[in-house]
Write a structure and sequence with these properties.
mainly alpha; 3-stranded antiparallel β-sheet
Length: about 190
């Protein structure tokens, strides 16, 4: 939807007196700076970028953090050359000690080198097969905890048909619950209504 212009009330002289003398064309009243801009005698709403933050990375779940960082950098149009520098200030805990050591030993990496080294150091084991891990999950406590663990592992596998995912989820449920769920013939996981 295109922002519509609103004609400023009052005389042109009073409007002109509220404009900064630095030639920026913005009203001197600070409440307008982030909300509107002045062009050709009309106020227009600005399209502002939503406030976003890149979370600190302290060594846990590097794949999710890198994904989040990529989205963050894309939204802010951070160039590939500048991504590593931006990311470096968002590293904490064991990860900052690792990063400092790496910087001293090997120098400043590119973003792609940083991501590769980060995932090797903090990422999942190359010997861990998430397809097997997904199949081994069993419902022990609260259903929502089981579902969260299942979804976490499900997000790490690729190429599973929806029916297979539903089947593995149901098989992992406790016996008394599994019988009731099987009788209800559940909808695919991603098609909840």
């Amino acid at each position: 939807m295109k922002p519509r212009a609103v004609r400023a009330a009052g005389s042109t002289d009073s409007l002109q007196s509220s404009i900064k003398n630095d030639g920026s064309g913005m009203p001197s009243d600070s409440r307008f700076i982030n909300e509107t801009s002045f062009r050709g005698g009309e106020f227009h709403p600005n399209l502002r970028t939503p406030k976003m933050e890149l979370p600190k990375f302290s060594g846990e779940d590097p794949l999710s953090w890198v994904f989040h960082a990529e989205q963050y950098f894309d939204c802010l149009s951070v160039s590939l050359e500048n991504r590593e520098s931006h990311a470096a200030v968002h590293v904490a805990g064991p990860a900052i000690r690792w990063y400092r050591w790496r910087l001293i030993q090997q120098g400043k990496p590119t973003w792609l080198e940083f991501v590769a080294a980060l995932t090797v150091c903090f990422g999942p084991s190359a010997y861990l097969d998430y397809n097997v891990e997904l199949s081994k999950i069993r419902h022990k406590g609260i259903v929502t905890e089981y579902q969260a663990e299942f979804e976490d592992k499900r997000n790490m596998v690729h190429g599973w048909p929806k029916e297979a995912l539903i089947g593995v989820f149901i098989v992992g449920l406790r016996d008394e619950l599994r019988i009731n769920v099987q009788a209800a013939r559940p909808q695919p996981l991603l098609e909840k209504k």
